[in-house]
Specification:
Elements lengths: L7 E6 L3 H12 L4 E7 L2 H10 L4 E4 L8 H11 L4 E6 L4 H10 L3 E4 L4 H14 L5 H12 L17 H11 L4 H8 L3 H15 L4 H10 L6
Parallel strand pairs: 1-2, 1-3, 3-4, 4-5
Helix pairs in contact: 4-6, 6-10, 7-9, 7-10, 8-9
Length: 222
């Protein structure tokens, strides 16, 4: 099981000083957070990332000098290992699906509480993503609308075992490996093995891709 043994640096990109200061206070209370870097502008963040790349970036979608999608595109093109979590007042499906397609690791509303933020951070650091029911629903709805269907190269000729189907459906509800293990009376390692097999069989890059696949194949419904 992965652990949070190494200290991490978190960066914040938000033009509201009071919001950044509140986040800094919360983040500095976490034992694995070594430092918190605040940036009010995109150039300021870029300068820091080129000096030292933080492990995680908390990104606001609405900035005066650059919008969230463009910021994510530029950052992930230059720093593909940067883990981005969006924090936004916008909760419409189009924003969630756009950012997930760009490669962000999670998407949280700005009214999330301290525990939700902590869980998202730890999931992203430990597993590479934090997957919520809201993200799942947004992706499913996007796939089910023909005029706004998400482009995908996922294989349509895939044979999944009954157990893999069970794991896939639980992933689509936003459950984490430990929760799926409890639900199916399996070890976490076994669940992670099934998830890896699902990624290999479907060609999905991550759990968001698995939801897209499941929706396209009619394996789940909202």
């Amino acid at each position: 099981m992965p652990t949070l043994d190494s200290p991490v640096q978190i960066a914040l990109l938000d033009d509201h000083a009071l919001f950044r200061q509140g986040l800094r206070y919360i983040l500095q209370s976490l034992p694995y957070v070594e430092s918190v870097v605040e940036a009010a502008t995109f150039p300021e963040l870029l300068k820091h990332c080129r000096q030292r790349l933080p492990e995680v970036l908390l990104l606001d979608l609405q900035m005066p000098d650059v919008d969230g999608p463009e910021a994510a595109r530029q950052l992930l093109a230059e720093f593909p290992d940067l883990k981005i979590i969006v924090l936004s007042m916008f909760s419409a499906d189009k924003f969630i699906t756009q950012m997930m397609k760009l490669g962000v690791r999670s998407y949280l509303p700005k009214d999330s509480d301290q525990e939700q933020l902590r869980q998202a951070l730890e999931d992203v650091l430990l597993t590479g993503h934090h997957y919520t029911p809201a993200i799942s629903r947004a992706l499913v709805r996007a796939v089910q609308q023909p005029t706004r269907q998400l482009p995908s190269t996922l294989s349509t000729q895939v044979q999944l075992t009954p157990r893999e189907l069970e794991v896939l459906r639980l992933i689509c509800t936003g459950q984490k490996a430990a929760e799926i293990a409890d639900t199916l009376f399996l070890s976490r390692r076994t669940v992670e093995g099934h998830r890896q097999k699902l990624l290999e069989k479907t060609g999905a890059p991550n759990s968001a891709g698995l939801v897209v696949y499941a929706a396209q194949q009619g394996l789940l419904s909202i």
